[in-house]
Every structure is written in structure tokens, then in C-alpha cells.
Amino acid sequence: MSTTKSFQCLVCRLRHAAQHPPIRRQFHASSSSQARKRFPSVKASELSEAGYSEYTPREKKLLSLKYTSEQMKIIEAGEKAVSAVDMAQQGRMRTDPMRIKYLDDFATMRPILDRPLTAEDIEQAQRGLQEGRNPGSKKRGLEATPVEEEKEEVDLPMLRLSQQTGLSLDEIKRIRVKNLVSHRVVNQTRMGKIQSIYFLTIAGNEDGMVGIGEGKAAETEDGRRQAMMNAIRNMKPVARYEERTIYGEVEGKVGATIVQLSSRPPGFGNRCQSLIFELARAAGISDLAARTPRSRNKMNVVKAAFQALTKQRIPEDVARGRGRKMVDVRNVYYGGQVL
């Protein structure tokens, strides 16, 4: 018996290959794309309006038993206003947090999820409201408890700070607060060494007001809170040219530290060390250059920069001191207003 393969023409080979495609090797557990079920794609315009049919006379009669005539007119007007085609084409599933946890068109009453209210339930709720009790407590199988008024806890130190500064609590919360310096200090007494933690904090509304505050306490949180309140209490206005930089060049000196601040053109940015950068950002300054040619003690740098920002001389003060009148040539200083 011959084991050689019989000769096939090219047409037969192509026909056989078309009828028996090669089996591809699967590298994952899921089935191949050919073996998956195919569902016909349906366009929104092809959806039938059967799911959005109008109310039948029987349904309207049942609704009239539950709703008044005015409410029925509103329901009919709403049904006419909303097109079934628009519902089919533009309908979307809700993704907001207030959505219900199950799909329902609210057309049928469910005995567990939707418990209908009876006249007895309404009387009980009204009686509970008159007596000052929670009307929904008995429905859940709980004993009725008096309704307690929710009172927000008032922070007395923050309330006192609001009264001292004239700022509301919301404005105080929006103030930018940054702790710049913190280290441990020791006070030698006859009873021994008493350790405390020192904090230097800045506060600003990023709109021309900035302040610095110091705090010291045995506990970290107490010292930080004390420094924050002192910074907010010590906030002072800072003169800003075009609400982005300072007027000319100013200098501040505290101890052996000297800080030199210079104005810069728009887009220059705050090119200075981190301590002065945070102070300028809290004050709402975006274009500034600074130099510290001498000592760079952190506490003195912050204090000298704050001193330099608050002692600026604006052109109006210079003109008044010289007995002259300032003319706003660029319409920038007075914002285009003629005085």
C-alpha cells in the first residue's frame, strides 16, 4: 500500500483551506471572538415606544383615587411635555450619589420597599410632632425618643479671635496658614529644665493681608494653635503694585539679618528663598526678587521680610510728602479712575 499523498490541484487546496480554517492557539482563558455570543446592535431611534405608552383609562381611574383633580392635570401635562422619543434617545442612567439603589419605574407598589401610608400612620405622625417625638421611630420598631436639637460645637478661642479681628469664622477658615520655623527650647529654672516647643507661623488671605505669629507651649498642638492665632491677630495690609509685586526696592533689618526685596515685571515669579516665598504667596505677591546678604537666621529672615513688606512707601505718600500731585500716566495706579 502506497503511503504517498494523492495529488491535489491548487483550487482543491484553497477550497479545503476555506472550509477548515486553522485553529489559533489561545493564550488566555476566555473564549475566542468567534465563539462569543453576538447581540445585534440597536439604535436609540429604533427603540419601540411600547415602554413609554400613555396611561390607559383604567390606570387614570386608579390614579384619580390617589391624586386630586389638580394633581391629575399636572400629571397629564407632564406626560404631554415629555416626548417618548426623547426618553428613548436621551434617557440616561443616574450616576449621582442621590440615586436609588435599585431599578424601578415607580409604577408598582412593593410591599417591603414601598410601604403605603394609612390614615393611622398619618395620625400617629401628627401626634408625635405635637408631643415633640420622632414620628418615624415606632415604624422601625424603636421606642419614640424626644427630638434633640442639633447644636454645633462652638470653638470659644476661634469665636474670641473672630470678635477681636472682625472676621467671620468662614473668612478665618479661608486664611492661608503656614508653619515656617519650629524647634525645641529649654528654660532653666530652679526646679530644673523646662522644655517647650517654639513655632513661627505666617497667615495671609492671599489678597494683600499678611501677618506673623509666635507660639510656645509644652504640647505641640497647643504651640501651633497659639502661633496660628497670633499670626491671624497680627495681620497687616501690604501695598501691592498692580496686585502682583511691591513698589520699588525695600529693605528690612532684624538683628544681623538684612532682607532686600525688589519689584519685578509680570511673569517673573517669586525668585527667593523658601521662607520669603511662602510669606509673599500668603500676601498675594507673585513677582518678587529677594536677597539676604548677611545672616540667614530663619526667624530673623521671616521677621525682616515682614518688616520690609509692611513699611513700603507708596507713590501717593511720596507725592504728599513733597507737596506735589501724582499723575497716573499709565492708568494703572488708580485703575483708570480720574481723581
UniProtKB/TrEMBL annotation:
Annotated keywords: Mitochondrion, Ribonucleoprotein, Ribosomal protein
Upper taxonomic lineage: Eukaryota, Fungi, Dikarya, Ascomycota, Pezizomycotina
Record carries keyword Isomerase: no
GO cellular component, one term: mitochondrial small ribosomal subunit
PROSITE patterns per the UniProt record, alphabetical: S5_DSRBD
Region of interest called Disordered, as start-end residue ranges on this chain: 25-50, 126-154
GO MF term (any one): RNA binding
Cellular localisation: Mitochondrion
Organism: Neohortaea acidophila
Protein name according to UniProt: Small ribosomal subunit protein uS5m
